[in-house]
């Protein structure tokens, strides 16, 4: 048996040390390349892709926005005046269809890519629009509402996810917020067109519905020129296409930067699964519920989504004209445009602020503001003479309480649109890459299942609990949501998608994310002085 003398042993130790040092240097170089790619300028192509995909958001907004004016102008076009239960039915059927559409989109998005569910949404949007516009009986109109809902759910699930995955880190919040702004623009235009055709005798509402058939055709044409998500391409081993996509998004990046980004995405996927392409749906879903950190991430995203829906906003979208007619405004359809306009205006505010002040800081202010507005509206309803059984005014003069309700609703919409409306969809950034499509599906299912509850019970709640009780309930939901934000919602502004998983390794990660933000700000400040590379 041979022995190693001291000199040979020292040489071996030196070789091992040098080998480890080289590995550290290699990792540091890769990390520097990964950090540096996020400091390069985002291309116009990245914004054009985001704007194209956001047409899906516009469709979402338009097809959920026109029902408010249609309900008050449809009259006997479907053979008879719609009862309260029938109004709730045709309103909630879109949410039911959206629930099914979201499940479909989430199931196929990992296997067939992000673009395929959007194409499918475009097809069903057109079919559903034609069914509604040509309806002369309630069953056909109801089926059309459900079919349109399939497209709404698919678009609502995939469009924010797609945008988040093609967005540079620094612009992710703003790009996803642009999708939400498109939703609010669709709702505003739907309200405006609905108000305009309200003065057309007969079937003016049909034109309001039919106009919604044009945007999905435009989206389908433009989507052809958009690349697939780079994370989706990496997951399926299509590295050359992934690098070409990254070059479009980061046109001034080097080959080394793009390759480092691809390795980072690949490592993030293989860390948990080995390969998304070979992962069964059952295994992916099981991983969400059996991996504590992943479960916390998905739960947090879904909780914020539930708060955004159960807080009552969509009752204002679906029934705004009905509601304002209830409190005594003579031109309720026109007044409803004020709500849609406020919604659109403050979605722009969110677009400007979300990457500057962060998600958590905005939610802390806006969700509390929503709770207060709903509470004041509930108190104001106490002084409005409404027959709870018929939801009709007992006398024509309502005075200041009606004005106060209008002001509270406008302020509520301002808080909602500048906060949780967008951040609920940005919440997909919290979900790890290997389960993101299924996690986003669960997030969207949460959206539409809670939406069904709200849209199908609002008029019944107004009668059963009275307007005071209904709006008091919404206020309570918002306050519970504010408590959740305070204790459980971490700040992930500016974090790479592949790094966010570390947040939920530490509970809900509120403290960890605060520390990360402080350190990142210090790195950015030092980088501005030319001392270090940006990021960590």
UniProtKB/TrEMBL annotation:
Pfam family, one: Sugar_tr
Transmembrane segments: 45-62, 89-109, 116-136, 142-164, 176-198, 204-226, 293-312, 332-354, 361-383, 403-426, 438-459, 471-489
Cellular location(s): Membrane
Membrane topology field: Multi-pass membrane protein
Domain Major facilitator superfamily (MFS) profile: 49-493
Domain of life: Eukaryota
Record keywords: Membrane, Transmembrane, Transmembrane helix, Transport
Chief subcellular location: membrane
Keyword Secreted included in the entry's annotation: no
GO cellular component, as recorded: membrane
Chemical reaction(s) catalysed: myo-inositol(out) + H(+)(out) = myo-inositol(in) + H(+)(in)
Family: Belongs to the major facilitator superfamily. Sugar transporter (TC 2.A.1.1) family.
Protein name: General substrate transporter
């Amino acid at each position: 048996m041979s022995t190693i003398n001291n000199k040979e042993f020292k040489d071996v130790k030196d070789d091992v040390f040098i080998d480890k040092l080289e590995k550290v240097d290699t990792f540091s170089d890769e990390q520097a390349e990964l950090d540096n790619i996020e400091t390069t300028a985002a291309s116009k192509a990245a914004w054009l892709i985001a704007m194209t995909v956001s047409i899906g958001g516009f469709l979402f907004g338009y097809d959920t926005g026109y029902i408010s004016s249609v309900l008050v102008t449809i009259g006997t076009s479907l053979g008879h005046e719609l009862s309260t239960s029938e109004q709730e039915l045709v309103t909630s059927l879109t949410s039911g269809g959206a629930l099914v559409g979201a499940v479909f989109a989430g199931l196929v998005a990992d296997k067939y890519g992000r673009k395929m569910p959007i194409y499918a949404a475009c097809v069903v949007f057109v079919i559903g629009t034609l069914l509604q516009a040509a309806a002369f009986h309630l069953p056909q109109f109801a089926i059309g509402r459900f079919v349109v809902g399939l497209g709404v759910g698919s678009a609502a699930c995939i469009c924010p996810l797609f945008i988040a995955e093609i967005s540079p880190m620094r612009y992710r919040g703003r790009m996803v917020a642009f999708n939400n702004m498109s939703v609010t623009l669709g709702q505003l235009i739907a309200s405006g067109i609905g108000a305009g055709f309200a003065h057309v005798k007969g079937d003016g509402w049909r034109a309001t519905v039919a106009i919604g058939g044009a945007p999905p055709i435009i989206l389908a044409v433009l989507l052809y020129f958009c690349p697939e998500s780079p994370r989706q391409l990496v997951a399926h081993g299509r590295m050359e296409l992934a690098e070409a996509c990254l070059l479009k998004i980061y046109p001034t990046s080097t080959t080394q930067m793009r390759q480092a980004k691809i390795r980072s995405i690949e490592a993030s996927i293989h860390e948990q699964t080995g390969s998304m392409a070979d992962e069964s749906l059952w295994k992916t879903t099981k991983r969400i519920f059996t991996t504590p950190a992943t479960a916390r991430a998905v739960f947090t995203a879904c909780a914020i989504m539930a708060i955004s829906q159960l807080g009552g906003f969509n009752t204002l979208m679906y029934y705004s004209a009905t509601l304002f007619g209830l409190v005594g405004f003579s031109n309720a359809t026109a007044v409803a445009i004020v709500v849609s306009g406020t919604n659109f205006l403050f979605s722009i505010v969110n677009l400007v602020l979300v990457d500057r002040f962060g998600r958590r800081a905005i939610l802390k202010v806006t969700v509390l503001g929503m709770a207060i507005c709903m509470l004041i509206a509930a108190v104001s309803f106490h002084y409005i003479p409404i027959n709870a059984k018929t939801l009709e005014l007992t006398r024509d003069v309502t005075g200041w309480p009606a004005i106060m309700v209008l002001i509270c609703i406008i302020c509520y919409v301002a808080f909602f649109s500048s906060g949780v409306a967008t951040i609920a969809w940005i919440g997909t950034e919290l979900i790890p890459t290997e389960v993101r499509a299924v996690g986003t599906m669960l997030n969207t299912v949460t959206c539409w299942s809670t939406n069904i509850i709200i849209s199908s019970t609002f008029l019944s709640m107004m009668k059963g609990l009275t307007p005071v009780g209904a709006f008091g309930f919404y206020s309570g939901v918002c306050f519970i949501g504010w408590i959740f934000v305070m204790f459980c919602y971490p700040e992930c502004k500016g974090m790479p998608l592949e790094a966010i998983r570390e947040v939920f390794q530490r509970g809900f990660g509120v403290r960890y994310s605060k520390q990360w933000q402080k350190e990142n700000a210090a790195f950015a400040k030092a980088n501005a002085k030319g001392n270090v590379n940006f990021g960590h």
